[in-house]
Design brief:
Elements lengths: L4 H5 L2 H4 L7 H4 L6 E13 L6 H8 L8 E18 L5 E14 L2 E12 L2 E6 L5 E9 L9 E12 L2 E4 L7 E9 L4 E10 L3 E16 L5
Antiparallel strand pairs: 1-2, 1-11, 2-3, 3-4, 4-5, 5-6, 6-7, 7-8, 7-9, 9-10, 10-11
């Protein structure tokens, strides 16, 4: 893969505003290499326990987990991939597959997703089977407190059932807001994800900081 899904789906003038230290994270991963990061999430999950049975269902496919914990060590591993989409899975689209492993008090759990470049833009396919997908709009501010940070905002959420893809109406669809920024003072990359829904509010979130590098793929992980 010579260009990452972000580079294929985001206008070049938007990516040009990225903080220089974020270009490795959102750029192409060279053949024979892998992106690895390690850090700590300040918070993961939701304190609203009535949502946990729903999150437990998503946990079966490695999407979200029924937890509310602080100071959670984690690792992230990004690998270039091809994800088969379209009728019959005939189209293999450029992707970055991510595994985020959370070391909860109850044991380690891994969140899996794949970002692809598709005809209508950037799409995040959540879970090991990618049954839930979110169409994302990339934004980068040139000025202000978040200058150089990348925001990914969901504009459409859909799920696959019985071989068909069903788009959720905007009035009920959950909203994803992911922000990645670089903290020069701490020399850390900071990430924040908030999943919210109309009327209900925040359903799930995580935020923390980590260090990231592109390294030769030794086959571990």
């Amino acid at each position: 893969m010579t260009r990452s899904p972000y580079e294929l789906s985001t206008p070049s003038d938007v990516l040009a505003r990225l903080h220089p230290r974020l270009t490795a994270y959102f750029g192409a991963i060279p053949p024979g290499h892998v992106g690895r990061g390690e850090g700590v999430f300040d918070v993961v999950g939701t304190p609203r326990r009535w949502l946990w049975p729903v999150l437990a269902w998503f946990a079966r496919d490695s999407v979200m987990f029924p937890v509310w914990e602080r100071d959670v060590p984690f690792t992230v591993e990004n690998r270039p991939a091809r994800v088969r989409r379209g009728r019959g899975g005939r189209e293999a689209r450029p992707a970055v597959r991510a595994h985020r492993t959370f070391r909860f008090r109850s044991g380690s759990r891994t969140m899996v997703d794949a970002i692809t470049a598709e005809p209508d833009g950037l799409v995040d396919h959540l879970g090991r089977h990618g049954r839930v997908s979110a169409r994302l709009r990339a934004e980068v501010d040139a000025h202000g407190p978040d200058a150089g940070a990348l925001r990914l905002v969901s504009t459409r959420v859909s799920f696959r059932a019985l071989g068909r893809e069903v788009r959720l109406p905007a009035r009920i669809a959950p909203r994803v807001l992911l922000t990645e920024r670089f903290d020069d003072e701490a020399d850390l990359q900071r990430v924040s994800l908030v999943l919210s829904a109309p009327v209900v509010g925040t359903l799930y979130r995580y935020e923390g900081a980590f260090r990231y590098e592109i390294a030769p793929d030794t086959g571990r992980g």
